[in-house]
Specification:
It comes from Corynebacterium hiratae. By secondary structure, the chain is α+β, with helices and mostly antiparallel strands. It has one domain (about 1-20, about 25-115). The protein is built from 4 helices and 6 strands; from the N terminus they run βαααβββαββ. Strands 1, 2, 3, 4, 5 and 6 form a 6-stranded antiparallel sheet that branches. The chain is elongated and about 50 Å long.
């Protein structure tokens, strides 16, 4: 399995945190993870081994998959192993890597990339 067409959203993340610290946006505006995202982080996510930039609790990395080739599996959270299995089926799709803090509801898309099976 390999990734291509990777897009990073780290700059946008840093900008949002700068705006929060400067008082230009409220915590409630940025910490808006809904129940589904928090549940996916809890059940499908992995510990990132880094603290939440808002509250200091442990962040979880959640992978969401999108693409017409996935059919009913599109728009769902998946483990790295499940993503590798889908790629091994010859499917090409996009993975969104989202950091989530279940404690304060901070969430941010870190990067998106197209996954495909290496041949």
């Amino acid at each position: 399995m390999a990734y291509r067409n990777e897009v990073s959203y780290e700059w946008e993340r840093a900008q949002h945190l700068r705006e929060l610290r400067a008082g230009k946006v409220t915590r409630e505006e940025l910490c808006d993870a809904d129940f589904l995202l928090r549940a996916a982080a809890e059940h499908h996510g992995v510990d990132m081994q880094k603290p939440c930039p808002v509250c200091g609790e442990e962040l979880r990395l959640t992978r969401w998959v999108y693409g017409d080739s996935l059919k009913r599996r599109a728009g769902s959270a998946r483990s790295a192993a499940e993503i590798a299995e889908m790629a091994a089926e010859g499917l090409e799709f996009t993975v969104h890597f989202v950091e989530v803090c279940p404690a304060c509801r901070w969430n941010h898309l870190l990067r998106a990339a197209t996954v495909y099976a290496r041949r």
